[in-house]
Amino acid sequence: MKKIFTILGVSSMLMMNAQLMYEPFNNTGSLAGQNGWATHSGTTPGQIASVTGSLNFTGLAASTGNSIAISSSNTEDVNKGFTAQTSGIVYYSAIVSAQNTTGTTANTATGDYFLHFGTYSTGTNPQLSLFQARVYVKKGVAADTVNFGILNNSGGTAAPTYSATDYPINTPVFLVVKYDIATNTASLFLNPTPGSNEPSTASAVNSTGTTASPTQVDYICIRQGSSTGNFQIDEMRVGTNFGQVAPASGSLAVSDFNKTKSSFVKNTFIKNDEISFGSEVKDVKVYTLSGQLVKTSSVKANETLNIAELAKGNYIVTGTVNNQPVSQKILKD
């Protein structure tokens, strides 16, 4: 009975930690048309594109490869879908860095938004036009700084709520956004500690928009507004709890495994002492269900890992595929 309870407990933990989306932006060229991203507004698809270099934030797993850039001189807006959430709380996060304050509105202005959730609606034209949890930006008080704000929804005399802190340009800022569907409230956390509990106090909270809560939230969007300025963006995550979008480096969290399982463990039922992998996997680790690390390795595409020395039973295998952390439970017979 104790063994069954342990297995169920670990399985529940993995399900809780499964992110809705993870995007490291390791594409090249136009973002639209790659990895599920599509243009929903603007006249020139391809304006949002990869740039060389990545953004990193202390405590998060190191980002490698490329990132993307947006500009207030462009018009293309893009989106990526995830499993629709009809209730509860939805989070997203990203590392952003203002490249300069060119095109960004003054500190006394309302500002403009560049990240948000979206809802696909068959009764609205354009069909992706219901936007929630919008991250705003405007110039800070001091030169070469910016300030971030949050708006829950549109409608009424809605105005974003800004944080009390300005951030210098060319400095990575870790944004975590929380949207409560039931209360139609958005919260913004600036530079929270990855791997920790959700801070008790947000950097800014907003519920001024009077448009009703959507029936579902199912898209993450990147917007190039006329006053958003110029930003580099990297490491975007969507999830249903704080830990999924602000995971500590080296954690066991599953990162959108359903979309990459064909590139990870191919045989979850092990009968010949060999774990087969569908792609190159870095930093392979095998854990017991109690969390004890029992084997480490790295494998090439279509290689196997011998676990003959391990006793029969259930294990958790973790690794990194295309810079994305993944995890899978296996059973050795």
Description:
Residues 192-211 are annotated as: Disordered. This is Por secretion system C-terminal sorting domain-containing protein. Residues 266-330 form the Secretion system C-terminal sorting domain. Keywords: Signal. Pfam families: Por_Secre_tail (PF18962). There is one protein chain. This protein is mainly beta and 333 residues long. 6% of the residues lie in helices and 44% in strands. It contains 2 helices and 22 strands. The strands form 4 sheets. Strands 1, 3, 4, 6, 11, 12, 13 and 15 form an 8-stranded antiparallel beta sheet that branches. A hairpin with a 7-residue loop joins strand 7 (112-120) and strand 8 (128-139). The longest helix is centred in the first third of the chain and has 16 residues, at 2-17. It is elongated and about 65 Å long.
List the helices and strands and how they pair.
Elements (H helix, E strand, L loop, with lengths): L1 H16 L3 E3 L13 E5 L7 E4 L13 E5 L6 E9 L3 E10 L13 E9 L7 E12 L5 E7 L9 E8 L4 E8 L4 E6 L13 E3 L10 E6 L8 E9 L2 H4 L23 E2 L3 E3 L4 E8 L4 E7 L4 E3 L6 E9 L2 E9 L1
